[in-house]
Amino acid sequence: RTTRSPTCGPLSSNVGPGLTVRPYLVKVGQTAYVTVSGTPGATVDLFVRKYLGSFTKIRDRLVLDGTGIAVVATRPDMNLRFQAKDRTVEQGSSMAGADGLMTVEKNITINVRRDGTRRYTFTGSINPTHPGATVSLFRNGTLLRSGIAVSTSRVYSFTATLPAGTYNFQ
C-alpha cells in the first residue's frame, strides 16, 4: 500500500510504527494495553525501558493485523517507556513521546510513634519502589528533610526531635 502526501509526493509503502498506552496511569497489578500501529502485516519488535535502565525486548516478531494494529497487555510494577521497531523499515522506530509512557501510582504508608518529648519515629513503606528510591519529610507543607533512603524491602524509617505540626512524606 502506498500513500501520497499532498506536499511531499509519494511516501514509502511501509511507515514506522506508532504506539499508544491506555491507560497511561495505572495502579500496581492493573492491566494496561500497548497498541502498536503501522503497516498491515508488518513485523514489529516491542521494547520497554524501566527506570534508569536500558531498553529490553519484550515481544519479538509481533505481526500487525490487517488493519495495522497489535495490542499487548501488560501489568507494570514500575514506570515504563515503550518503543516499537519495524524490522523492515530503516529507522522504523517509535518512541511515541508521551503516548509511549506508562506511570504506576505508588502506595505510600506512614506510621508515627512518639518516643519522648517532641521526639518521633516515622516509618512506612512504598510500593512499588525502584533502586535508589528516597522519600522527603514535609511539615505543614514545607520541606524538612529529603533523601531519606528506602530499603530494598521497600521500607523507610526516620527518627527526629520535631516541633508540633502536620507531617507527611513524598
Structure description:
The chain has 170 residues and is mainly beta. The protein contains no helices and 18 strands. It has strands spanning 4-5, 9-10, 18-22, 25-26, 32-37, 43-50, 55-63, 69-74, 80-86, 93-94, 101-104, 107-108, 111-116, 119-127, 134-139, 142-149, 155-161, 167-169. Strands 4, 6, 7, 9, 10 and 11 form a six-stranded mixed β-sheet that branches. Strands 12, 13, 14 and 17 form a four-stranded antiparallel β-sheet that branches. The termini are far apart.
Keywords:
170 residues, mainly beta, four-stranded antiparallel beta sheet, 55% strand, disordered N terminus
Give the secondary structure arrangement, pairings included.
Layout: E1 4-5, E2 9-10, E3 18-22, E4 25-26, E5 32-37, E6 43-50, E7 55-63, E8 69-74, E9 80-86, E10 93-94, E11 101-104, E12 107-108, E13 111-116, E14 119-127, E15 134-139, E16 142-149, E17 155-161, E18 167-169
Parallel strand pairs: 4-11
Antiparallel strand pairs: 1-2, 3-5, 5-8, 6-7, 6-9, 9-10, 9-11, 12-14, 13-14, 14-17, 15-16, 15-18
